[in-house]
Specification:
Order of helices and strands: HHHEHHEHHH
Protein name: PFKAL protein
Keywords: Cytoplasm, Glycolysis, Kinase, Magnesium, Metal-binding, Transferase
InterPro entries: ATP_PFK (IPR022953), Phosphofructokinase_dom (IPR000023), PKF_sf (IPR035966)
Radius of gyration: 23 Å
CATH topology of the largest domain: Rossmann fold
CATH architecture of the largest domain: 3-Layer(aba) Sandwich
Cofactor: Mg(2+)
CATH class of the largest domain: Alpha Beta
Strand order of the largest sheet: 1-2
Helix content: 40-55%
Largest sheet: 2 strands, parallel
Structural class: mainly alpha
Organism: Polioptila caerulea (Blue-grey gnatcatcher)
Shape: elongated
Distance between the termini: 50 Å
Strand content: 5-15%
Length: 197
């Protein structure tokens, strides 16, 4: 469950083995769980997370996520030494354990469907999101044709119109709204004229 699992510990932290990861390759990445974690935004939450990692002897993290996840990883990394000092001071771990776990290595992977990160051709999640959108478009196109109606489809992408743009191009959409290019005044008349044609 992402940082939530890191903070809560217990059964949320377990070693993956062949049996636990068998037959998941075709599933979406969230098969391992995903959660927004308010506790991790606080130092107290990150202290609990550090304690859970140290208990399991984990000093390497692979963080897959967007802006919040990667920002959290950077803060966690920068605070790591101080968190260990605090755990020693509070008597939760020994100095020897702190020395053994003195370094936290983090690899960050951009796991966003929005494809809004420079320096990469496509972020993790974009391709599967586009695939899902096109499956839906294929399914509703025949319905729209048989009813001779216009269909409106809203796709994912909070502040980024990449998915809307690419799926609109791929499906031959007649009209498209994206946040990067808000419609100008009078767009309603222009759209009706276009659809009327």
């Amino acid at each position: 469950q992402g940082y939530e699992g890191l903070v809560e510990g217990g059964d949320n932290i377990k070693q993956a083995n062949w049996l636990s990861v068998s037959n998941i390759i075709q599933l979406g990445g969230t098969v391992i769980g995903s959660a927004r974690c308010k506790a991790f935004t606080t130092r107290a939450g990150r202290l609990r997370a550090a304690r859970n990692l140290v208990e399991h002897g984990i000093t390497n993290l692979c963080v897959i996520g967007g802006d919040g996840s990667l920002t959290g990883a950077d803060i966690f990394r920068s605070e790591w030494a101080g968190l260990l000092e605090e755990l020693v001071r509070d008597g939760q771990i020994s100095e020897e354990v702190a020395r053994k776990n003195c370094r936290l290595n983090i690899v960050g992977l951009v796991g966003s469907i929005d494809n809004d990160f420079c320096g990469t051709d496509m972020t993790i999640g974009t391709d599967s999101a586009l695939h899902r959108i096109m499956e839906i478009v294929d399914a509703i196109t025949t319905t729209a044709q048989s009813h001779q109606r216009t269909f409106v489809l809203e796709v994912m992408g909070r502040h980024c119109g990449y998915l809307a743009l690419v799926s609109g191009l791929a499906s031959g959409a007649d009209w498209l709204f994206i946040p990067e290019s808000p419609p100008e005044d009078g767009w309603e008349d222009l759209m009706c004229e276009r659809l009327g044609e």
